[in-house]
Amino acid sequence: MPSASKEIVVSNKLGLHARPAMQFVDVANQFTASVMVKKGGEEPAEADGKSVMQMIILAAEQGTPLRIEAEGDDAQAAVDKLAALFESKFGEED
Amino acid sequence: MKLRDFIVTEAITPELAAADRDGAIRELVNALSRAGALPAEAVDEVVGALIKREQNGSTGFGKGVAVPHVKHAKVKKMSGTVGRSVNGLDFAALDHQPVYSVFLLLSPDNQPQQHLQAMNIVFSNLQKDTFRRFLRQSTSREAIADLLDEADQGK
Fold first, then answer.
1. ipTM over 0.95 threshold
2. Disulfide check for B107: which of A64, B13, B115, B137 has CB 3.0–4.6 Å away?
3. Is a pLDDT exceeding 70 seen at residue A93?
């Protein structure tokens, strides 16, 4: 099965709070590929990218490196679009 | 961080009188204000901000729970409370089901990390089937406070 992954850093000031988490899940659900989000660092954790609750539990603050992993036919497209959300800072500021 | 670090016991409302979302939010913010967690003159503004937040996207994330929350300049110290609705509330939840347990969280507007950690601990517990079930069955403030204590102790 095709897979894809991308490393990103949470750059928006407020971190991955509820609204961006929901935005992420909405986009993830546009794809058939499964999506996992992995957090490294001192408190490693992972979340199902299609579950709002799990994404909020990541509590990824500004500066946190994350790895987005997708598996499925549209894995690459999913990863690209999800990474772009972080690059746009979820439309939050500046 | 633990639930009891910010959940104000005196503001826990085991039986919400309100029958709708906006009323429940106001009832819980009033309870926090009466318990000294928020100045009375800030109540209207904070309630308005919480309702606006819900209109932008429901915090009813499914499974009968909702977590209305807001970061606001009038909030000096993070605080939260829990409300129980016997008949269920329409929170326009993601799964279209009524909400029976409400965790309401108020954060200062300049401490995003603390806010994320509080959301983390709230959702870590709300994800557990047993926690949600016991919360729905807790009919008194003491019972809810005990449940939060047990959750904090990792039971």
1. no
2. B115
3. no
Torsion of CA B51, B52, B57, B63, to 10 degrees: -10
Length of chain A: 94
Q: How many CB pairs under 8 A join A and B?
A: 47
Task: Tell if the CB–CB gap between A17 and B115 is shorter than 8 Å.
Answer: yes
- Report which of A50, A39, A33 is spatially closest to residue B61, judged by C-alpha positions: A50
| A-chain residues near B113 (CB < 8 A) | 15, 61
Q: Rounded to whole angstroms, how far apart are CA atoms A90 and B85?
A: 33
Tally the residues of chain B: 155
What predicted TM-score, i.e. pTM, was given to this entire model? 0.87
Establish whether A17 is a catalytic residue: yes
The model's pLDDT over A59-86, given as tens digits with 9 standing for 90+, comes to 899 999 999 999 999 999 999 999 999 9
- Asked if the C-beta of A83 comes within 8 angstroms of chain B's C-beta atoms, the answer is no
* pLDDT tens string A10-42: 999 999 998 899 999 999 999 999 999 999 877
CA distances from B104 to B9, B49, B90 (A): 13, 13, 16
Residue B18 DSSP class: -
Q: Which of A14, A52, A53 sits opposite B112 (nearest CB)?
A: A14
Pairing of strands A3-9, A65-71: antiparallel
Q: Say whether B116 and A16 touch across the interface (CB within 8 A).
A: yes
CB burial string A16-47: b at 16+ within 10 A, e below: bbbbbbbbbbebbeebebbbbbbbeeeeebeb
Cβ <8 Å between A18 and B59 = yes
Q: How far apart are the first and last CA of chain A?
A: 39
* Nearest CA among B34, B134, B117 for reference residue B81: B34
